[in-house]
Amino acid sequence: MQVNDVVNIYRTFIIAGAFAIAGCSSSSSSLNTVNEINGTAVPVVHANNSAAASTEQASVTSFYQANSRQISKLSYSLKSEWLQDVKPAEVLDPSSDVHHVYAALSKLEEMSEMNEIYRKDNNIEGLKAINLALKPWTLNA
Questions:
Q1: Fewer CB within 10 A of the terminal residue: the chain, N end or C end?
Q2: pLDDT band, residue 85 (cuts 50/70/90)
């Protein structure tokens, strides 16, 4: 199974899940975050085999865990702020804020999947690229 297949499966899963999840609230700062996440490219970095062999496992694990925590915090924040009492029509309407939130959640899921792949491949450069992409939305706590 290729990365694109995994991404498409998760994207479909998230959109289908939209019908079971509720909610929308409005906040301009979080809507900016949603739009920024949607505009961010998921980092795709091919591992350099010689570099991957010499990569310390502790660094790989550290970046992987930091990325996983940040993705989880962002997802939870968006879900708790926007996904209350969602109507199915809002999810499918490209002009609705809820639609954009689900697109942002899909993007975060793609990053999460790439994070997993980079960990398995010991691709420290890929993990660093995801970490850098997540920096604008670093949440404390």
A1: C
A2: confident
